[in-house]
């Protein structure tokens, strides 16, 4: 076992607010329970849900750490009772339900993925949240199959960039929308087949033109609001609409006759609230289907910028400014 300190630095907030509510604090190093491991965090990924949590609109679920941070990479420092799949000193990345913005973080052993030698830890920390979210929503809820076309909004976001790369690795044609020509150019460099500047043109008309009027089989939507009706116009017969965020508003007015006559499916999910056993199954599936591509260097996150743990407020400010491309991470070690 590695020698553990009694306390650690973590970054949390007392009350919701602007980025500067995020402050370093000293907390006891957590003790792993049955099925858990303690990870000495090297890097923690920053995700939009952390920003929404800090703003007070996405509280930590019962039992989860109130410290933000949904994904980490680092070294296993201690094992909880019954853990046999990992050893102390092993490098892992993990999906966690909170607590990532800290020097030490608890993770369930069955939510950890081994970090291949070729994968730097900053990149490892930038993978779990978007990989798990996109895999589940595009391929499991959206039933994406090779040869189909996927429309993704926010093409240069953490989620959007992962959707482009996974889509291409699994045989999809990927159309994205982005706010501005620079982001469109970046999305094309990441691998999108088509990038639509939604500020300069109507994405519904553009999708119609790109698909020769057929439409796309799947929409991965992080906007909602009035986008839902417009997304439905982009869907082909038997199309699937998957909601993962409601940045444009929670209410949508849609034509239910279209759902019937064009046999559309509307679904969605949030990852953080899912059960431990669901996340363990998803981890096992990703280990089998996607992790070999990571080990071979065929899938790497698009990295935007790294900030020191103590500069978490600056990382949130950058994310809220919306000019980032890909993933922001916190360097902890
Ligand atoms: N359901 C889940 O399980 C789950 C899990 C993780 C993340 N999410 C959600 O997925 C979204 C992306 O997360 P992230 O961490 O990748 O965040 P991010 O990198 O900050 O990306 C947010 C993106 O949203 C786009 N956007 C915002 N408002 C828009 C609007 N009105 N119209 C079109 N695009 C808009 C922006 O694209 P432009 O700059 O191009 O406009 C931006 O790229 C967030 O809303 C997050 O809460 C959901």
UniProtKB/TrEMBL annotation:
Q: Start and end of every Enoyl reductase (ER) domain?
A: 17-330
Q: Does the keyword Endoplasmic reticulum apply?
A: no
Which source organism does the UniProt entry give? Novosphingobium pituita
Quick check: keyword NADP in the entry? yes
Listed Gene3D superfamilies: Medium-chain alcohol dehydrogenases, catalytic domain (3.90.180.10), NAD(P)-binding Rossmann-like Domain (3.40.50.720)
In Pfam terms, one family for this protein is ADH_N
Could you list this entry's UniProt keywords, alphabetically sorted.
NADP, Oxidoreductase
InterPro entries the record matches:
ADH-like_N (IPR013154), ER (IPR020843), GroES-like_sf (IPR011032), NAD(P)-bd_dom_sf (IPR036291), Quinone_OxRdtase_PIG3 (IPR014189)
Protein name in UniProt: NAD(P)H-quinone oxidoreductase
Q: Which CDD domains match?
A: p53_inducible_oxidoreductase
């Amino acid at each position: 076992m590695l020698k553990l300190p009694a306390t650690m630095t973590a970054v949390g907030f007392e009350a919701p607010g602007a980025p500067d509510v995020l402050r370093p604090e000293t907390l006891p190093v957590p003790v792993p329970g049955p099925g858990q491991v303690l990870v000495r965090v090297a890097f923690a990924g920053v995700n939009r849900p952390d920003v929404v949590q800090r703003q007070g609109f996405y509280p930590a679920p019962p039992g989860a750490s109130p410290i933000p941070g949904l994904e980490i990479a680092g070294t296993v420092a201690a094992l909880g009772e019954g853990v046999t799949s990992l050893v102390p000193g092993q490098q892992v990345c993990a999906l966690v339900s909170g607590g990532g913005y800290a020097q030490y973080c608890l993770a369930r052993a069955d939510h950890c993925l081994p970090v291949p030698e070729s994968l730097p830890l900053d990149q490892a920390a930038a993978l779990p949240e978007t990989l798990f979210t996109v895999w589940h929503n595009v391929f499991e809820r959206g039933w994406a199959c090779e040869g189909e076309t996927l429309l993704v909004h926010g093409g240069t976001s953490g989620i959007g960039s992962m959707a482009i790369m996974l889509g291409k690795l699994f045989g999809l044609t990927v159309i994205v929308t982005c706010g501005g020509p620079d982001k469109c150019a970046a999305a094309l460099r990441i691998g999108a087949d088509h990038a639509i500047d939604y500020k300069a043109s109507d994405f519904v008309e553009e999708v119609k033109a790109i698909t020769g009027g057929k439409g796309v089989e799947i929409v991965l939507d992080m906007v909602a609001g009035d986008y839902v009706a417009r997304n439905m116009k982009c869907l082909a017969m038997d199309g699937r609409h998957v909601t993962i965020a409601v940045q444009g508003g929670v209410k949508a007015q849609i034509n239910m006759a279209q759902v019937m006559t064009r046999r559309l499916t509307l679904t969605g999910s949030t990852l953080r609230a899912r059960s431990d056993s669901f996340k363990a199954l998803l981890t096992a599936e990703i280990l089998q289907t996607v992790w070999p591509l990571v080990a071979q260097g065929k899938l790497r996150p698009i990295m935007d910028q790294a900030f020191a743990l103590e500069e978490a407020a600056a990382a949130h400010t950058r994310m809220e400014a919306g000019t980032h491309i890909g993933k922001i991470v916190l360097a902890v070690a």
